[in-house]
TrEMBL record:
Gene3D superfamilies: Histidine kinase-like ATPase, C-terminal domain (3.30.565.10)
Coiled coil region boundaries: none
Protein name: MORC family CW-type zinc finger 3a
GO molecular function: ATP hydrolysis activity
Residues covered by the Morc S5 domain: 255-302
Amino acid sequence: PYLLTEHNTWLQNRLSPKFLHTNSTSHTWPFSAIAELIDNAYDPDVSAKRFWIDKTVVKDEVCLSFMDNGNGLDHETMHKMLSFGYSDKIALNGLEPIGIYGNGFKSGSMRLGKDAIVFSKSKTVSCIGMLSQTYLEMIDAKQIIVLCHLFSLTISLLSVNEDQEASLRDILQYSLFKSQVELLAEIDAISSSTAKTGTRIIIWNLRRTSTGSTEFDFGTDRYDIRIPSEVYEELSDPSQPLNRATSYVPESVVSLRAYCSILYLKPRMQVMVRGQKVKSQLIAKSLAYIRKDYYKPMFLDQQNGFHS
Ligand SMILES: Nc1ncnc2c1ncn2[C@@H]1O[C@H](COP(=O)(O)OP(=O)(O)O)[C@@H](O)[C@H]1O
Ligand SMILES: [Mg+2]
């Protein structure tokens, strides 16, 4: 593991901040970016029972917030989550993880907005991390810098090392939260759930369309997050021009609630969109005709450990 860590540090130190944007373009659709964050809570190492997706306004800035009541994470895992080149996920109790490449959080969060802050509460510690393109631009960073800060469970600060003090200072200066009290209030929001542990992610500087509005429509349906038609047209494959008269757009493409309802074949986590439960659609049960086809990639035997 030490060798790996050295390699990862090497990799991280050579990544330009611009890579955060480049890397995010793997998500052509905003909902797949959101799915990365949902998957992380659903994965067996976190095994959240609930996942909340909301729009929230912090200091007049429209943000997306994601919260789960899973196991939370400690300082080291937080650091890995915000950095590149790590994933130590393994199957737990026979449940295969979805994430195995260690890139979901970075690509997903940075697809949705330029800046993300993560609050987490595990059984033993609370910590805060920030991955912010705005911050990296403002300090003219030449490589990606990840900020992490650890709180002890009491309100008083656990005075850790200088790095952490510097992280806290920069988080307060460059995030939307300007005091420790404000930061702690977000951590408290996690513990108000029954599990007392979990993770809360706030993304701001949301991506905007060419006309300057956010790519999400929060107004049409108070209990949904929708993709407006102009965004739909802008993002759709230009080689397949839309024929408005005939083209039918499935709800799951433009409604986050509909998208979440079909996300998992085996739902084991309740997703809440803007305070309302998402009703899972068991796809297999809603189809008129079902045929099962088992597919096994030919190269599976040679490449042990590859999960499709
Ligand atoms: N909601 C969460 N709660 C606890 N840990 C998380 C959460 N999201 C991400 N993590 C941790 O961060 C790591 C990196 O996540 P990600 O970038 O999506 O890569 P991957 O899922 O492929 O490991 C995960 O392996 C997990 O340890
Ligand atoms: Mg993941």
